[in-house]
From TrEMBL, chains A, B:
Family matches, as InterPro entries: DinB-like, DinB/YfiT-like
Pfam families on file: DinB_2
Gene3D superfamilies per record: dinb family like domain
Domain DinB-like: 12-150
Protein name, as recorded: DinB family protein
Length: 173, 173
């Protein structure tokens, strides 16, 4: 096991600024391309990250801390951000993500003052018992997953443009 | 074809700052972990990006522009950064990458004042004729590939820590 709460927080703190430096000011083509039918573009990925801050991570941490081992998380709709979409640009989305993440981490750090047991659990609707440290690790890896997704979506825009180098670039497969 | 030189430059300009915001200040465990035997850690990936600036991208652009269609690129040793390693920390490496990239883009922008034909070619040692626009597209996708690699390396550090969520996180496979 590699999980340490301070090291997980290091990642969670960095994601909004990392995405801002990668994405703000890019031409629309980079932000609206996707990987094909029923795949997300960059704007949709960032909207999904915002949803997670609002309805997933802190609410589930709260359930573990306050309801305990026999309580089941409400399911998280991973596609909810595709419904009732407001038209926001990348600057607006990343500002909202940054604010939501700051609030989440402030809440988490306050809770950490009294958390002594990262092994405590609640029930996941599919997996059964899940531990607090598993949820926190997943939150950090979920960020990394979506940074990866964003760079892969953008890379694939040049899938044909790279010509024969396609064979060297596993990201395009 | 999606390639536009200004849009490719948008990506190339952003990579050093994006990596700095992701990586500077992280605990050593994030920077020195790898994906197993004969795989790179984050420091090695950044060192590889620096090598590319020094011996690959601009030198090959120069060959296309000055030597032309019958000239073969010298091969690029993708593992050269693993030999004669100096011990540099992530701040030093990212500063060097930033400086090399700024120099590369200054050189490129100067050349662009007189480039009218992005279809001109030179010979790749394996692929045969490759076009200037393919080389420039590859440079941008190569950046995205290595951002992806870095986030994947870090994610895998928590492969076991995420518990049953592993099934939802394709990056860990």
């Amino acid at each position: 096991m590699n999980f340490k709460i301070n090291e997980a927080i290091e990642l969670l703190e960095r994601t909004p600024e990392t995405l801002s430096h990668l994405l703000v000011g890019l031409s629309p083509g980079w932000l609206t391309c996707n990987e094909g039918d029923n795949t997300w573009n960059v704007l949709e990925v960032v909207t999904h990250l915002i949803e997670g801050e609002k309805v997933n991570w802190i609410p589930r941490i709260n359930i573990i801390l306050t309801k305990g081992a026999s309580y089941t998380f409400p399911p998280f709709d991973r596609f909810s951000h595709l419904k009732n979409k407001e038209e926001k640009n990348i600057e607006q989305l990343l500002l909202e993500f940054k604010q939501c993440r700051e609030e989440s981490l402030l809440t988490l750090k306050n809770k950490l003052k009294t958390i002594t047991d990262f092994e405590q659990t609640a029930l996941h609707p599919e997996f059964g018992p899940v531990r607090l440290r598993e949820l926190l690790s997943t939150w950090a890896v979920h960020d990394l997953t979506h940074i990866t997704q964003i760079t892969r979506i953008m890379a694939k825009r040049y899938k044909e443009d790279v010509g024969p180098w396609k064979n060297y670039l596993g990201i395009l497969k």
